[in-house]
Specification:
The complex is a heterodimer of chains A (about 600) and B (about 200). Chain A is α/β, with parallel strands linked by helices and about 600 residues long. Chain A has 4 domains: about 220 residues, Thiamin diphosphate (ThDP)-binding fold, Pyr/PP domains (Rossmann fold); about 100 residues, Rossmann fold (3-Layer(aba) Sandwich), CATH 3.40.50.920; about 180 residues, Thiamin diphosphate (ThDP)-binding fold, Pyr/PP domains (Rossmann fold); about 55 residues, Alpha-Beta Plaits. Chain A is about 35% helix and about 20% strand. Chain A contains 20 helices and 24 strands. In chain A, strands 3-2-4-5-7-6-12 form a 7-stranded mixed β-sheet, with helices on both faces. In chain A, strands 16-15-17-18-20-19 form a 6-stranded parallel β-sheet, sandwiched between helices. With about 200 residues, chain B is an alpha/beta fold. Helix content of chain B is about 40%, strand content about 25%. The two termini of chain B are about 15 Å apart. A 6-stranded mixed β-sheet of chain B has the order 2-3-1-4-5-6. The longest helix of chain B has 25 residues. In chain B, strand 4, helix 2 and strand 5 form a beta-alpha-beta unit. Chain B is built from 8 helices and 6 strands. Classes of the chains: A alpha/beta (about 600), B alpha/beta (about 200). At the A-B interface, strand 8, helix 11, helix 14 and strand 22 of A face helix 1, strand 2, helix 2, strand 5 and helix 3 of B. Strand 8 of chain A pairs antiparallel with strand 2 of chain B.
Amino acid sequence: MKQLLSGNEAIALGAYHAGVVVATAYPGTPSTEILENIARMDGVYAEWSTNEKVALEVGMGAAYGGVRALVSMKHVGLNVAADPLFAVSTTGIVGGLVIVSCDDPGEHSSQGEQDNRHFARIAKVPMLEPTDSQDAYELMEWAFNISEEFDTPVLLRSTTRISHCKTVVDVNKERRADLKPPHFTRSPAKYVMVPSNARVRRHAMEERIIKLQAYVEEFPLNEMLLADRKIGVISDGVAYQYSREVFKDASHLKLTTIYPIPANLIRRFAQEVERVVVVEELDPYLEDEVRRLGIAVTGKEFIPIIGELNPEIVENGAIQAGIVPASAKPSPQSSSPAPQLPARRPQLCAGCPHVATEFVLRKLGFHTAGYGKELKKDELIVTSDIGCYTLGVYPPLAALDTCACMGASIGQALGLEKAGVPNKVVAVLGDSTFMHSGITGLIDVVYNQGSTTIIILDNQTTAMTGHQGHPGTGISATGATTQAVELESLVKGIGVKDINVVDAFDLKAIESTIKRSVESDETSVIIARGPCILSVKTKGTPLEVDTEECVGCFDCLDIGCPAISISEDIACIDADMCVGTICGVCAQVCPQDAISEGKR
Amino acid sequence: MKDVNVLMAGVGGYGVIMASDGMAEIGMNNGYDVKKSDTLGMAQRGGSVVSHVRWGRHVFSPMIRKGEVDFMLGFEQLEAARWAPFIKPDGVVIVADVVVIPISAIDGKIPYPSWDEIRGILSQYTDKIYLIPATRIAQEVGNPRAVNMAMLGFLSAFLELGTEAWTETMRRRLPPKFMESSIEAFMRGTDEAKAIILGKGIKK
């Protein structure tokens, strides 16, 4: 049956048909929909794990227990899960274990760009990579089979364009019925990695790769297409699709086995064509592999190493490198220079519970109202983290000084303090991020007697990726009610004595609490609590601007609410967007008291 | 079977993704190979949304090249202007009567362009520009979210699949509550386009 599936839907369905029994993940663009889809399928245990490291450890345990397990994450998630990745590569598994890494070339929704194909080689784990949803669907069964046959975890690498593009899939399988029952066989030599056992497993890892090198030579989803022999293009992932479109008449070698590579197949292909070209996104991974075979190759000198590719970039590079002739058709360039259009940056929503805290931080923290200037001693430094609240770096809020990786805000704050920087430091992170990687940082602050203030913006969901549950929410991946981990008790248990819970929409309370906390010498935690407005079903009565009272000072624009604009030289509130009294931050900011609940 | 490249540009909340999903599925159900790709610059947070939908005998790239868009649906006027360079010479541009002013235009130095300015930008690439009353149609059918259906209806008049091919898939996909009003918005869009096509003698 033909179905139109995104890569992530195809991965989920492929895993389901391959008999996956346990699926774990931490949400992260562009990988999130894999677990969301699996969570709706019968006969699979699906969980949002606290973070990617835990997700992989749960998957590892399930695979030790003899069942098939799928673990999915975004590219930077694999950094977090690198420790168990190397560990499970060493021990091997019993039930199939497939780890999906979704890379984000071009950083559509990420703090950085990285090419996770390298992880396969460094962890000595085979890697497969689809070029569309059909491949993704079919590769899942292969991945589980390879995992079990070669006693190894298998990496499947996707990218944003594979995960989020919909393509036609011939769904030609059903869920396999011959699922093995869970069973753990005691085997310390395999599972207990004391050095004497690890040394033995180390040999097994190398032997496994040698066997896989032979195996991938016959892998059916690697495809050699011989046409015009002048150019032979080797490509993987979505770059294969771009290559087929740009190099229409050329010969092509599509690779889906990324590690190990099919060396003899590549040699045969190279012998058939006059010139070998590699088209790949990000690093020259395949290019280096091909060159190591002694084959002359053209690659990154015409294909950018940075960012996402598209057919245009590939074609322009190929023209510049003289691989294809310049296009004969007239380019539709406009005669006049492109006019400047106002940008449409992402921004915090109308009614977002993060706005008030960030507004106060800016007020307390950025007296000089600008970056790159000498900090005054009484100005706050605000270390920040990964989540919607990071959008507060943009004007008009412009309230943040750092954003690096999950949970880093807390360690950074302590580091700045211990370095002796004269300014007070505040760390800001969300509830889901705190659960993911903030807890250990907070323990470090308490243990090492930091005086930092940590603000947990508790909107009771993982908002940025589309409202997934996390340990603090008490909602499981399938939507069931579960035990919630209470933030206050957790923080108290760590040893924080100065714990403050404030209403996320109460400007005065937030300001006075932050002021007091930064002055204290002990570790302070402020929990700014208010629900993500997108998960609130009933909105309040929209607020209105009193046209008589408004003097057009536009202080209200400083909160960056998308519902507020200027109309005829006074402020104006879009009643459709405004969530009203649930928020009311603009009314608290207005020095004229000109904003209040509408009369409707 | 003609290749069709459609770019849909807009902002979050106006049904761009639903329209592009629907169009992709309609193409597949009617024998095309289909690919569709969204770029969601954190759309739920007010960013731009762009969908590429491609129908063809065999589609490779999920992204349409600059200058190769046959039809652009502008679900928001500024976003239509922003993606103008993707239109092929003589491509068709269909723009909804929707304006969503970004924060950068409220407090920034670059104002939101007028429709005349937007039309000026678009007309550097094509003369076939249609501003359609999609919001009015949606309101008149009693379903404010049906702006995207009116847009698809207008587009359908230019394509080789008949109306039935579109509505058949829509009947299977749409929730019952919105089905009739959505299909009515679609038909109203089609009628608008047919009146223009007949009036100008445009060939499909």
